[in-house]
């Protein structure tokens, strides 16, 4: 089966530390493995409205939502790229994940069934030098989401980076990036 990586960039900054770390790891993917990079800043979503207990179904996605929906379903590997913000993912990444609740209820989408068996990955950066335990809530949230979706968990790549570009000087993070995707 041909692998297809979707990199979802959730930072409030372009080319931030998490993105730089993800791009470093992606350099080691074989050239024939497709990669799609989507920055959530470029695909803003409206606030999520929970209709489960009122309408019960959601309309077919349109606009930016459709772009994200289609890319998510087309991927075999979904890479959540988000810096550590308040011990979790960024607001745009959380909003994207909230939309998964809607996609469960889009008639004919079979979203949860179609996500089962894919692989989820996390790439993050944190700014508290020496305390990578602060990423545990972020990783737990993504891993439990993957488990709920019956997705495989690929792992977490984390690097220290406070100021823009700092992660490139994190020797441990750069070393881990080399074999992170295991290909």
CATH superfamily: Flavodoxin domain
- Strand arrangement across the biggest beta sheet: 2-1-3-4-5
**Main structural class:** alpha/beta
Task: Count every helix, treating DSSP H or I runs of 4 or more residues as helices.
Answer: 6
Assign the CATH architecture: 3-Layer(aba) Sandwich
> Main β-sheet: number of strands, strand sense, barrel status?
5 strands, parallel
Helix content: 25-40%
User: How do the SSEs run, as a string of H and E?
Assistant: EHEHEHHEHEH
Task: Write a structural description.
There is one protein chain. Strands 2-1-3-4-5 form a five-stranded parallel sheet, with helices on both faces. The two termini are 14 Å apart. By secondary structure, the protein is α/β, with parallel strands linked by helices. The protein has one domain (5-178): Rossmann fold. Helices cover 33% and strands 17% of the residues. Helix 5 (136-148) links the parallel strand 4 (119-126) and strand 5. The chain contains six helices and five strands, in the order βαβαβααβαβα.
Write the layout of secondary structure elements.
Blueprint: E1 5-9, H1 17-26, E2 35-39, H2 63-74, E3 77-81, H3 91-103, H4 111-115, E4 119-126, H5 136-148, E5 152-160, H6 171-178
Parallel strand pairs: 1-2, 1-3, 3-4, 4-5
Helix pairs in contact: 1-6
């Amino acid at each position: 089966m041909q692998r297809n990586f979707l990199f979802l960039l959730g930072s409030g900054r372009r080319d931030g530390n998490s993105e730089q770390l993800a791009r470093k790891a992606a350099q080691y993917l074989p050239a024939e493995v497709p990669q799609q990079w989507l920055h959530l800043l470029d695909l803003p979503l409206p606030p999520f409205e929970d209709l489960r207990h009122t309408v019960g179904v959601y309309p077919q996605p349109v606009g930016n939502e459709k772009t994200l929906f289609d890319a998510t379903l087309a991927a075999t590997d979904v890479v959540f790229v988000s810096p550590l913000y308040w011990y979790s993912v960024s607001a745009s990444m959380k909003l994207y994940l909230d939309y998964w609740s809607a996609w469960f209820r889009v008639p004919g989408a079979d979203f949860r069934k179609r996500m089962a068996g894919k692989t989820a990955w996390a790439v993050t950066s944190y700014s508290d030098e020496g305390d990578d335990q602060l990423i545990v809530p972020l990783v737990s949230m993504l891993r439990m989401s993957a488990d709920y979706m019956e997705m495989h968990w690929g792992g977490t790549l984390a690097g220290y980076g406070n100021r823009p570009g700092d992660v490139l000087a994190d020797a441990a993070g750069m070393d881990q990036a080399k074999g992170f995707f295991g290909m």
